[in-house]
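Researcher: Structure for this, please.
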Amino acid sequence: MEDPESCDDPAGIKRWGVPGGSRPLHNQNRDQALGGVPGGSRPLHREAGINLPMYVVRRIGVFLVSVLVASALVFSVMSILPGDPAQVMLGTQATPEAVAALRSELGLDRPLLVQYADWLVGVLRGDLGVSIFSGQDIADQIASRLTVTVPLAVLAMTMTILLAFPAGVYAAARHRKLGDTVVTTLSQVGLAIPAFWAGLILVTVFAVGRGWFPANGFPGWGSIPTALRALFLPALSLAIVQGAIITRYVRSAILDTLREDYIRTARAKGLSRSAALWRHGLRNAAIPVLTILGLQFAALLAGTVVIESVFVLPGLGSMLLQAITRRDLLLVQGGAFVIVAFILTINLLVDLTYRFIDPRVARQ
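Model: Predicted structure, token format:
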């Protein structure tokens, strides 16, 4: 079939300035070099594929630099705090000579930069030092406490997502209606409740009053159902507050998405508001929600410090509180660094997830 344009211009002079209608050779070569698409536009999948490795490398590079800076900050803060570890280990009755000898043995009399370098090398080997108070390996103590703190944070975040996402989507779909008002009011109440206060109420109602869950303590992972029952109320205490925050963000992100042109186009083609949201809106609203999820997961880790004390859980938070009380600065230093590194790892995973939700991120 002939090109209609070539019928009006059989010589091809108006089209290309070349008799016969053939495209100039340099334009053809340019199109071949840029993916074979007329006009030089490169196929989208090629562009995304080229940028993906560099995006991952950049994110990992930023992560490594952030961990290094965080380690320097943690070490610096611990170094300027009052209190001499050697004096704490020997007690207040120790002679200055004994304290000086122990400081030399521990390497505390060396320059701070040398101490930091030695500590950083030990961290890379998985050696965080020895506790001043107990004399036990700090890495082993932290690892044993993480078996409580990490499942607690993951369970709390799972509950948060299960509460916040349906509530936020429902409120956005019922914007300015009764359902939206109810969800917004409940989220305001959740924001006003401290996590420890919610924990006390849950213990009073469901542990003391009903006896459905244990009030405190952790039996270990010998029986998974029993362990999950012990973590349920602490996780729910954290999820109530975090769920209220994320519900508001989900609602806001969905409402912004519903105002986009492609949603109007979907509605014009006959889709209902809810159908257009579920088919086309949720993925585009996911990026701002994913950002706040990463930030709130870090807040969950911080919140476990208080919740573990309320429910008497042997987690990382309660260990750090005890270490601060005993002035076990080396244990506090190791625990703080592990928490910071864990938060940075979560942020890295969130950044990498952006790329799979929205491929345009890698090309920005």
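Researcher: Any notable elements?
Model: The CA atoms of residues 219 and 301 lie 21 Å apart. The chain is about 75% helix and 0% strand.
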